């Protein structure tokens, strides 16, 4: 049940978090999009990256209600190009930035049943079809969503209609959240069967729990494989300060740091799909090289940070 993609399809998917809205926390995101950030300019930009991904064989695309107009851009592109792909989306955050990069608040989180009931039809309208995967966006133990019987029953109904439902995870408690999700039952059956989690060379702490999910037959999708740009040539602070182990491995493989970081995620035996968060065609091309290289992951383990440290640093990244 864990495998979603046809045989021979690249395990690298494309996430639209950086393509569907003018502001995001990736290092250098504002410059990547160029001077024009109006809706039509960004639609064209997103389509160009989607076209490049399709040409490279990518068939998994990930969006969310909070990614600005990502679902709309993706749905329009699929219809205009006459293409079928595996689509994932998420509910639980509402985009509130009003297409501004300097908004005081960019998104609001709510895991109430009312949010699910509002956002599901919005997703259907934007995509023009049901998503293949539909996730609780950034589920945590604190929100209590996994213990909300009404939400779980509604997700079970969607699962009964052929939609793979599950959760994405964030924060230092990803493993605990996922293990609670693995224990969910509705009428004796767990309706959840997909997890999208942050795993990268700086924050690998969820690996053991992700292996458990994979062993249970869940689909495992890796997000933030380049740590919002910190595991790219831009370095940890955007000033080219690439950690030495990553830099050395990239030089050995004649690859860029982002490709090495994503290849490390692809090498995890429990990873079914690893998302590229590319904001440009050039970034996508570099990310896709991850499919061609095999880094020495043992040489990269020293990059791991305590989860609390990693998530504190991530929360300090500016929207741009």
From TrEMBL:
Superkingdom of source: Bacteria
Pfam families (alphabetical): Aldo_ket_red
Family matches, as InterPro entries: AKR2_Oxidoreductase (IPR053135), NAD(P)_OxRdtase_dom_sf (IPR036812), NADP_OxRdtase_dom (IPR023210)
Transmembrane segment boundaries: none
Matching SUPFAM superfamilies: NAD(P)-linked oxidoreductase
UniProt xrefs under Gene3D superfamilies: NADP-dependent oxidoreductase domain
Residue intervals of the NADP-dependent oxidoreductase domain: 44-294
Classification via PANTHER family: D-THREO-ALDOSE 1-DEHYDROGENASE, NADP-DEPENDENT OXIDOREDUCTASE DOMAIN-CONTAINING PROTEIN
Protein name from the UniProt record: Aldo/keto reductase
Origin organism lineage: Bacteria, Thermotogati, Deinococcota, Deinococci, Deinococcales
């Amino acid at each position: 049940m864990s495998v979603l993609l046809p045989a021979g399809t690249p395990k690298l998917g494309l996430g639209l978090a950086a393509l569907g809205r003018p502001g995001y926390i990736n290092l250098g995101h504002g410059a990547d999009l160029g001077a024009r950030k109006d809706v039509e300019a960004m639609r064209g930009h997103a389509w160009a990256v989607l076209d490049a991904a399709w040409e490279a064989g990518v068939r998994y695309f990930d969006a969310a209600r909070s990614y600005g107009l990502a679902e709309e851009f993706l749905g329009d592109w699929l219809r205009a190009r006459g293409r079928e792909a595996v689509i994932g989306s998420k509910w639980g955050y509402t985009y509130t930035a009003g297409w501004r990069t300097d908004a005081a608040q960019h998104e609001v989180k709510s895991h109430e049943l009312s949010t699910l009931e509002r956002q599901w039809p919005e997703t259907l309208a934007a995509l023009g079809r049901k998503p293949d995967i539909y996730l609780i966006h950034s589920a945590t133990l604190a929100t209590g969503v996994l213990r909300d019987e009404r939400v779980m029953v509604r997700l079970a109904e969607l699962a009964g209609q052929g939609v793979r439902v599950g959760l994405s995870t964030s924060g230092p408690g990803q493993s605990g959240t996922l293990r609670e999700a693995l224990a969910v039952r509705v009428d004796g059956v767990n309706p959840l069967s997909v997890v999208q989690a942050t795993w990268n060379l700086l924050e690998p702490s969820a690996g053991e729990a992700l292996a458990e999910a994979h062993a249970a037959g869940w689909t495992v999708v890796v997000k933030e494989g380049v740590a919002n740009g910190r595991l790219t040539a831009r370095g940890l602070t955007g000033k080219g300060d690439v950690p030495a182990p990553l830099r050395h491995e990239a030089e050995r493989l004649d690859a860029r740091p982002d490709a090495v970081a994503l290849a490390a995620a692809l090498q995890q035996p429990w990873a079914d799909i690893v998302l590229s968060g590319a904001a440009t065609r050039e970034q996508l091309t570099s990310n896709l090289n991850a499919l061609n290289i095999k880094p020495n992951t043992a040489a990269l383990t020293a990059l791991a940070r305590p989860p609390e440290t990693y998530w504190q640093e991530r929360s300090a990244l500016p929207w741009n």
